[in-house]
Specification:
This protein is an alpha/beta fold. It contains 14 helices and 18 strands.
Length: about 450
């Protein structure tokens, strides 16, 4: 069944345009509330958001939808996506909602839904919600006496701070470490600096002045240059860059050199394997994971299982293979011993734990392999299916032939943005650059 609203990570789009309009948000609340009304108890839903201007509009619409079908609503205000997932379970809620477009610009927004177990919803469950949205509202509205209530939870941030600190080894501290943290003017702008400071670090916080229109703008995990520059300027030991909803992280060593999701996976895999807590005999990555990671894991007698792009697919593969570590090159790191979805702050703490334990600078501790050259280019499109065009298919076949088995090509449509991602990987940097350029040009021509 083709889904009309949901993509690979909930519903996402330009704010105040289809599908991110107030009326659709209200319908989502009504439909999801009805689907998750199970039993005679008083049902509750928790709602968090990041710092986008449109968050107020979407939040109000969702509250109207949920209360109209009899659900009580607990509002957290700005809070990371993984915190909403955790608090959905902690507060015994029937449903959790995060209002965010993650790493997208502030003009976008989105709605992510979590079940009572704190897990993102399955495709089948999302289809049920879409089916309920197609029905008339008269079929699901409750009588006036059963309309839900809404209230704000003032200590949600404090609860999450304590939860995150609990994941850091009790015998370690961050004393003596100067850490730059870039919160992307997003959901973690209060909690991330607080966690690091309470664990003993000398914290230099940037990206902590949200105004509703600067989320992810030239900062955060998708633009880590600001964090890297500040690390060098402040002579810091480490840098952490989160995205708008703090479910992904990119880090930097003391020289401002980037530590991406693949390097984070390698570091955690090696550390957890040594202590005997790694499960599944390796980690889960994605089709985008660098071949250098796979080669390194092989030297550690560990394996890399690849999933489709998207943390929900990483989690599915983790469950299937019994893994407790998985993630994406972009910085979505899922550590299922602690959380049910990607958590940038918890992942960063696991890396910092290794640095603190080994007493090595990050430049020595966190770069475990040399990545194979990889080139990625995003090509924007509006309509049509350019990947089905004969010119595009021909360019991909030609590129594959030029690689002659010494690399790989991946061309895929993004599930969160109107772009096609073209990636080539191989030992010859110039060759793969040329291949990506040719394929991207063919897509642009087909999409014109």
């Amino acid at each position: 069944m083709t889904r009309k609203y949901f993509g690979t990570d909930g519903i996402r789009g330009l704010a105040n345009s289809f599908p991110m309009t107030p009326d659709i948000a209200m319908k989502v609340g009504m439909a999801a509330g009805r689907v998750f009304t199970r039993g005679e108890h008083r049902h509750r839903v928790v709602i968090g958001k990041d710092t986008r201007l449109s968050g107020y509009m979407v939040e109000s619409a969702l509250v109207a939808g949920f209360t109209s079908v009899g659900m009580d609503v607990f509002l957290f205000g700005p809070l990371p996506t993984p915190a909403v997932a955790m608090l959905t379970r902690s507060l015994r809620a029937d449903l959790g909602v995060m209002i965010s477009a993650s790493h997208n610009p502030y003009t976008d927004n989105g709605i992510k839904l979590f079940g009572p177990d704190g897990q993102k919803l399955s495709d089948a469950c999302e289809q049920k919600i879409e089916a309920a949205m197609a029905k008339g509202s008269d079929e699901i509205l409750v009588p006036a006496s059963k309309i839900g209530r809404a209230k704000r939870i003032d200590d949600a941030q404090a609860r999450y701070i304590e939860f995150v600190k609990y994941t850091f080894p009790r015998n370690l501290k961050l004393d003596g470490l100067r850490i730059v943290v870039d919160c992307a003017h997003g959901a973690a702008y209060k909690v991330a600096p607080a966690v690091l400071w309470e664990l003993g670090a000398d914290v230099v916080a940037i990206g902590v002045e949200p105004d509703g229109m600067n989320t992810n703008f030239e900062c955060g995990s998708t633009a880590p240059e600001a964090m890297c520059k500040k690390v060098c300027e402040m002579r810091a030991d480490f840098g952490i860059a989160l995205d708008g909803d703090a479910d992904r992280v990119v880090m930097a060593d003391e020289h401002g050199r980037i530590i991406d999701g693949d390097q984070i996976l390698a570091l955690i895999a090696r550390s957890w394997s040594k202590t005997g807590v790694l499960k599944g005999g390796g980690v889960v990555g994605t089709v985008m994971s660098n071949a250098g990671l796979e080669r390194y894991l092989t030297t550690q007698n560990l394996k890399l299982a690849r999933a489709a792009v998207g943390d929900r697919y990483v989690i599915e593969e983790m469950k299937k293979g019994g893994f407790n570590v998985g993630g994406e090159q972009s910085g979505h790191i899922v550590l299922s011993d602690f959380c049910t979805t990607g958590d940038g702050l918890i992942a960063a703490l696991q890396v910092l734990a290794v640095v603190a334990l080994e007493k090595k600078p990050a430049s020595q501790a966190a770069h475990l392999f040399e990545p194979m050259p990889q080139v990625l280019q995003n090509v924007r499109f509006r309509n049509g299916a350019p990947l089905e065009d004969a010119r595009v298919k021909s360019s991909i076949e030609a590129g594959t032939a030029r690689l002659n088995g010494s690399g790989r090509i991946l061309v895929r449509k993004s599930g969160t943005e109107p772009v096609i991602r073209v990636m080539a990987e191989g030992d010859d940097q110039v060759l793969i650059q040329n291949i990506v350029h040719d394929i991207a040009a063919a897509i642009e021509e087909a999409a014109a």
